[in-house]
Amino acid sequence: MATELKIPRHIAFIMDGNGRWAAARGLARSEGHREGAEALKRVLAACAQKGVQVVSVYAFSCENWSRPQAEIKFLFSLISQFAKKELKKYAEMGYRVTFSGDLTQLPKSTNNAIKKVVDASKNNTGMIVNIALNYGARQEIVRAVNLILQSGIRQVDEQMFEDCLYTAGFPELDLVVRSSGEKRLSNFMLWQCAYSEFIFTDKFWPDFDENTIDEILKEYSSRDRRFGGIK
Ligand code: IPE
Ligand code: IPE
Ligand code: MG
């Protein structure tokens, strides 16, 4: 008998392999990023259709500043475009768009485009599309500690700590998916993934589509999540 399909409340995707996808086709890395944005649209539509509550995607890490200037520039222009066109549409469709990361370091035009969609969608109750941008998990944790110190509180519990993370109020991160064969977190959601399931696939991010999501949900549904207990 087929196992019942379980839908994760919160899925995070580490969207990796754009460059290698392009290289395999003799294309510039930028073409891989462009196709990566197309894959993101397919993935978000599939997740919304399945009833996922939050989708987080790793778009640019704190460490990605070490890439060539031209690639960084291209990525931010792509993100600005994506915000003005796609995210705006999502906001109109009832999704809530949020960001994790230090947005003060971003190019001004990107920052403006982001602010608009965050604002326009802040009261929406549909799926949350959370984009990790200039994000690092260690930075997020240190930021939370500083927020707590600034507030003068001298003792915290887990709930209070979580309320100082970018993901405050989100449901549990049930599943982390990384594409392109790498099996590491690369400084992503270290607190949130304490009890997540992990799926690593060799598929490059630009090849992700509805079928990939079906396969991932099937795999997730087959996992026995015990949380330290016994059956
Ligand atoms: C992921 O693809 C996108 C970002 C990190 C911005 P990569 O650009 O890391 O692609 P690979 O890993 O070089 O193939
Ligand atoms: C992780 O991918 C960051 C994003 C997907 C945005 P990277 O390609 O930057 O990670 P490493 O260098 O393989 O760890
Ligand atoms: Mg990579």
Q: Can you walk me through this structure?
A:
- With 231 residues, the chain is α/β, with parallel strands linked by helices.
- Helix content is 43%, strand content 15%.
- The protein is built from seven helices and six strands; from the N terminus they run βααβαβαβααββα.
- It is globular and about 55 Å long.
- The structure holds 3-methylbut-3-enyl trihydrogen diphosphate (2 copies) and magnesium ion (MG).
- One 3-methylbut-3-enyl trihydrogen diphosphate is lined by residues 14-16, 58-61, 64, 182, 184, 186.
Provide a brief overview of the structure:
The chain is an alpha/beta fold and 231 residues long. The protein contains seven helices and six strands; from the N terminus they run βααβαβαβααββα. The chain is globular.
Question: How are the SSEs placed, and which strands pair?
Answer:
Elements: E1 10-14, H1 18-23, H2 29-50, E2 54-61, H3 69-93, E3 96-100, H4 108-121, E4 128-135, H5 137-151, H6 158-162, E5 175-178, E6 197-200, H7 210-221
Parallel strand pairs: 1-2, 1-5, 2-4, 3-4, 5-6
One 3-methylbut-3-enyl trihydrogen diphosphate binds next to helix 1.
- In CATH terms, what is the fold-level topology? Undecaprenyl pyrophosphate synthetase
Shape: globular
> Could you name the CATH class?
Alpha Beta
Overall structural domain count = 1
Q: What percent of residues are in strands?
A: 5-15%
What's the average pLDDT? Answer: 97
The H-and-E topology, N to C, reads as EHHEHEHEHHEEH
Q: Any idea what the CATH architecture is? A: 3-Layer(aba) Sandwich
Rg (C-alpha, Å): 18 Å
Helix content: 40-55%
Instruction: Count the DSSP helices.
Output: 7
The largest β sheet comes out as:
6 strands, parallel
